[in-house]
Amino acid sequence: MLVGAELRRIAALIVMCAVATVAAVADDSSTTSAAGFSCSSGGPAYEVRSGDSWYGIAGRADVNPSALLKANDAAVTDVLVVGDRLCLPSGADVTGICTSYTVRAGDSWGSISTRVGSSPGAVAAANGAGLDRTIHPGDVICLPSGASATAASGGSAPSGEAGGSYTVVRGDSWSAIAWRADVSMRSLLNVNGANARDVLLPGDVLSLPAGAKQPAAAPRVVLQAAPTQGPCGYRDTWGDARSQGRRHAGVDIFSGAGNYVYAVADGKLSGRSWDGAGGNSGNAWMLTADDGNKYFYAHLSDFAPQLRVGSRVRAGQILGWVGDTGNASASHLHFEIRPGGGSPVNPYPILRAQGGCNNGRPYTQPGGWVPDRTR
Ligand SMILES: [Zn+2]
Questions:
Q1: How many percent of the chain have pLDDT more than 70?
Q2: 154 C-alpha to center of ligand 1: Å?
Q3: Which of these CATH numbers, 2.40.10.480, 2.70.70.10, 2.60.120.260, 3.20.20.70, describes 232-354?
Q4: pLDDT tens digits along 269-282
Q5: I need a labelling partner for 162 at 20 to 30 A (CA). Which of 51, 133, 193, 372 fits?
Q6: How far is ligand 1, taken at its centre, from the CA of residue 178, in Å?
Q7: How far, in Å, from the CA of 182 to the mean position of ligand 1?
Q8: How far is the CA of 249 from the centre of ligand 1 (A)?
Q9: What does CATH list as the number for 159-207?
Q10: pLDDT tens across 225-252, in order?
Q11: CA 146 from centroid of its chain's CA atoms
């Protein structure tokens, strides 16, 4: 039996009166009654259809099956019954599980429900939300079954044009563009019919979701020095899957243990983490360059002893040594680039443009000292 869902149904009955009252006050012309079902997962609600399975729903919503089970206090052996209401984990992609609608500037539960011939309460309930949940331009929500999707997309400009367009430049990523446009990455992907693994090329023209700000041009990142002493090797692993559902947000530079790790720009060390049990990064530095770009260095065997958080460093200055601390199976530097301090972008082309591993000779250090070729 689906014990969790049963308990929730009972709980839903208890709160239904209050919610139904709100819906009635909000909309006299209500034709569909609000179900009064709400999801503490922060994700939308989903009504089980014939032929559904836990794995099938998780696949269509682009979420981990275990996250789906957890959001419903359920076990994979729990039987799904047509009409059961489930909660999807937050971040679920609703385009695969319902008739979806991208919220535009000025929208409210009420204005959307009017356009699709439903009631505000029913639209909110289809998203596991109460009428007090605020919606933002670019959010992708579910319409209740029976709502008219064509009415939703008619009227003003098609959603693809609503937020304008953006031309991809070198070094861009989905997350960086979304961050600069002040919209969610999911809404940016949806409005372009794309998924996060789709590669962006300079010159590609993207649609922006309604309500997006025109993104400022991507800060052009030029490294003043290589991040590690050569010889070393690296390849483009941007976005590759990592443990616990993480995506690779940097480049792994394989360099001998004990090779120097260098500041790639003039700036200040703005953060340090120490190797510890369960940590992914091991010994790591964050460098904030004078132009606001941030650089993250992980897995160091050790830190240059005179450096502290707040220390000023110059491009080429030794920050520490390549190692395998944290979640690393071989000595390498995990290196990230965050233009303007925002979301990481793919460092691979930027590293290549700098020359990457073509730097066996150590840089001259502040004070004129030239280190030995090896440690
Ligand atoms: Zn890495």
A1: 83
A2: 45
A3: 2.70.70.10
A4: 999 999 998 888 99
A5: 133
A6: 23
A7: 27
A8: 7
A9: 3.10.350.10
A10: 999 998 899 999 988 888 777 889 999 9
A11: 32
